[in-house]
Amino acid sequence: MTEQAKPLVGVIMGSSSDWDVMQHAVAILKQFGVPFEASVISAHRMPDEMFTYAETARARGLRAIIAGAGGAAHLPGMVAAKTIVPVLGVPVPSKYLRGEDSLLSIVQMPKGVPVATFAIGEAGAANAALTAVALLAANDEDLAQRLVAFRTEQTAAAQAMTLPV
Ligand SMILES: Nc1c(C(=O)O)ncn1[C@@H]1O[C@H](COP(=O)(O)O)[C@@H](O)[C@H]1O
């Protein structure tokens, strides 16, 4: 799936089975009107494509890469190894270990090759996208104002919360 404008954010995932989680990153990018591309890229199953994707990311204009994977989640780290574009890693819940394996695979990078690692699952995917928006907002005042408005709405919603007491 690819949007029309030149993508600024790449959303990649190890399998189409990760989409249930990673769609929450895409939803945020759409909400903020950030041009993105989304595709399945697997370090394990398609290593040559993964290297090409990472090596060409910066020249193609990507300013952040959101990479989600589950289990032995090498994708974010291997992409980070081949590009200086910031990589935001999303641990996808796994079948047997609930995504704790994914989290530890992504977060324990060696010093010098960072992957900014988010929470397991849907909230992590959404927050990775919000972080990509914040990175882009540093040079885009319109986007910054949309992010401020988003936070203001969130505050209002929290303030309006009631409890059944
Ligand atoms: N962790 C990786 C990588 C990788 O890191 O390159 N490639 C696929 N996968 C993960 O395998 C899980 C099961 O994939 P399938 O459902 O396709 O069997 C997915 O969560 C995917 O991210």
Automatic annotation (TrEMBL):
Residues involved in substrate binding: S15, D18, R45
GO terms (BP aspect): 'de novo' IMP biosynthetic process
UniProt keyword Signal present: no
Top-rank lineage group of the source organism: Bacteria
Record Pfam families: AIRC
InterPro entries, A to Z: PurE_ClassI, PurE_dom, PurE_prokaryotes
GO MF: 5-(carboxyamino)imidazole ribonucleotide mutase activity
Family, similarity comment: Belongs to the AIR carboxylase family. Class I subfamily.
PANTHER family, sorted: PHOSPHORIBOSYLAMINOIMIDAZOLE CARBOXYLASE, PHOSPHORIBOSYLAMINOIMIDAZOLE CARBOXYLASE CATALYTIC SUBUNIT
Protein name per its UniProtKB record: N5-carboxyaminoimidazole ribonucleotide mutase
Gene symbol of the encoding locus: purE
